[in-house]
Write a structure and sequence with these properties.
It is elongated, with a radius of gyration of 25 Å. The protein is built from 8 helices and no strands. The chain is mostly helical and 280 residues long. Helices cover 68% and strands 0% of the residues. The chain has one domain. This is CbtA family protein. It comes from Paeniglutamicibacter antarcticus.
């Protein structure tokens, strides 16, 4: 939520603005927590696990060690799959928190506005379910050391990409921060992994692997972190505007109350005559 988002709301809805800020803070914390867990999982593969290999051992780039979506044949690497699974669950909750924060910014009323809000929440639920699907698969696979049966339902996780695009478009006028977060969260979808493997990770690895390019999962973790930072920075800007709005409202209330007290006293003949409210 940005400062412009708060200024568009009526000044009397301070409580609603505060609630929206709280949801945005929750979203930022969840996304940043998710990024940390994803980063720790990537370190287990590309630092600890790869560092333990000899020149004649199998490469850590082998798809058998892909913990983000385990599929047979697969070998577990420490607790990387568990970290990734829990982190993706946090990511799903972060999307829902963003949706609730944006929902409170909807100042318009009417059937059309209500329908758009319902569509937005439905799309957010689809994105959260998509991330939750990947998280559940990775977590169960890591705990059991074998790929879960969800590996055969991978198509179910593809809905997150178009849903995020639709959400970003619908939120573009309500919250620029939420739209930007959607853009960076695309990095956690299948399309984002393809871009990370072929375009971004090779910049750090120095080459494109025939299997899994090193640091691919790290790039995805960074994109999640940027989404969280985007929400956190927007919260700071919104909070400053919220404080300013509160002080303006308080000043207006004090002026009106002082004018009412003077008029009341004038009505009983105690105090100087007043022709109108004092000029501000």
């Amino acid at each position: 939520m940005s400062a412009d988002d708060v200024s568009d709301l009526p000044r009397g809805n301070v409580r609603v603005q505060k609630a929206s800020v709280i949801w945005s803070v929750a979203a930022a914390c969840l996304l940043l927590g998710s990024a940390v867990l994803q980063f720790l999982a990537s370190l287990q593969r590309w630092v600890v696990f790869r560092g333990s290999f000899g020149p004649e051992d199998v490469s850590a780039e082998d798809h058998r060690f892909d913990y983000d979506f385990p599929s047979e044949p697969w070998e577990s690497i420490g607790t990387a799959a568990q970290f990734f699974g829990v982190g993706t669950f946090l990511q799903a909750l972060g999307v829902l928190a963003i949706a609730f924060g944006v929902l409170l910014l909807s100042g318009e009323a009417g059937p059309r506005s209500d329908l758009i809000s319902v569509v937005e929440m439905l799309l957010a639920a689809i994105v959260a379910a998509s991330f939750g699907f990947y998280g559940a698969h990775a977590l169960v696979s890591g705990v059991t050391d074998v790929p879960s049966p969800l590996q055969y339902s991978w198509v179910s996780g593809l809905l997150g990409f178009p849903a995020l695009i639709a959400l970003g478009w619908l939120w573009r006028r309500k919250s620029r921060a939420a739209t930007n977060a959607c853009v960076f969260l695309i990095g956690s979808t299948l399309g984002g992994y393809v871009v990370a493997s072929t375009l971004i990770a090779p910049i750090f690895a120095g080459y494109v692997s025939h299997d899994t390019t090193p640091w691919r999962e790290t790039v995805v973790a960074v994109s999640t972190a940027i989404a969280g930072i985007t929400m956190l920075c927007a919260v700071g800007m919104a909070d400053q505007r919220l404080v300013t709005t509160y002080h303006r409202i308080r000043q207006s209330v004090l002026i009106v109350r002082g004018w009412a007290v003077v008029r009341f006293r004038c009505g009983f003949g105690s105090g100087p005559p007043v022709k109108g409210p004092p000029k501000v």
